[in-house]
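Objective 1b of the project was to move from sequence-level analysis to a structural picture of ligand recognition. The entry below was assembled by the postdoctoral researcher (A.K.) and checked by the PI before modelling. It contains the amino acid sequence of the target and the SMILES of the bound compound, flavin-adenine dinucleotide.
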Amino acid sequence: MYAEFDYLSPSTAEELYALMEEKKNDYLLYAGGTDLLILLRAKKVYAKHVIDIKKIPGITGVQDEGEYISIGAATRLSDIESDPLIKQWASALSEAAAKVGSVQIRFKGTLGGNIQTASPAGDGLNAVYALDAEVGLLSRSGERRVPIAQYVLAPRKTAIQPGEVLYKIYIPKRAWSFQHFFKTGRRNALAISVVNGAMAIEADANGLVKDARIVLGAVAPTPIRIQAAERLIIGRKTGDIPLNEVTLVVQQGVRPISDLRASAQYRAYIAGISVKKQISAFTEGWKK
Ligand SMILES: Cc1cc2nc3c(=O)[nH]c(=O)nc-3n(C[C@H](O)[C@H](O)[C@H](O)COP(=O)(O)OP(=O)(O)OC[C@H]3O[C@@H](n4cnc5c(N)ncnc54)[C@H](O)[C@@H]3O)c2cc1C
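Corresponding predicted holo structure:
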């Protein structure tokens, strides 16, 4: 059973600011509700007022903004999965969205909710982390942009301030030669990740790696970028990447815990193997 709360649904940013000011510390923002309603029902969070943000103009939809694509925070994962601009510039995110929960969850759940939950296993969160996303936080003072790596502070903790709403996610349009999201769960469908992550690699016409991102989830309190492994890839030709060394560096670079889903040792093992598989897929694709 839920404790009693008011459901409020402002239709302009101005109305939202006024409600956040009036209700001060006694409100929770609500998008798809797939995380929030569970916490409310379990009485792990409580507020007298639940403010639905989905009617705020501009908070849904995907736009081409020149050097970036912007994704409204309340865009549903099912829309992200199929959006052509996201497929073109952020295919790792389309893949991640397609792997969240079930059709029903993706039809309600939003990318902003996934980021704001700040779960170390958040599929969308880990994908946008690897793509150097920034978040746009809207408040009465305007929009504040923060790189995602500085935004997610700990499980369930972000740098959002009272009076702010997560409004947009900005993804730079980078010509990655390869980008991919991967996920290992305890079963194939409807599974929270035991390990997930995303990789992006940019190589020139000769197969020389110019830049790389290796981001892993569910193996540290927040998504974790394994820069020591990235350094082993950058500056090498596709066929010369020391796969076993990269695997080891990834396994040593993660900081997993043991919980009901998997042991720390298993998580570290899978993290290394997953990255190795991605690099092999990239190298194989390059040969064709
Ligand atoms: C059965 C089930 C399976 C699931 N499987 C997966 C899975 O495989 N992978 C995965 O990553 N997640 C999974 N989830 C978790 C969840 O569905 C996702 O995290 C989803 O993206 C949350 O989005 P939402 O819109 O429903 O968020 P909500 O529940 O509406 O909100 C989540 C949190 O974010 C805050 N919030 C939401 N939007 C904003 C905003 N714009 N500004 C500021 N704060 C905001 C809320 O206050 C709340 O604290 C699963 C959940 C369920 C119930």
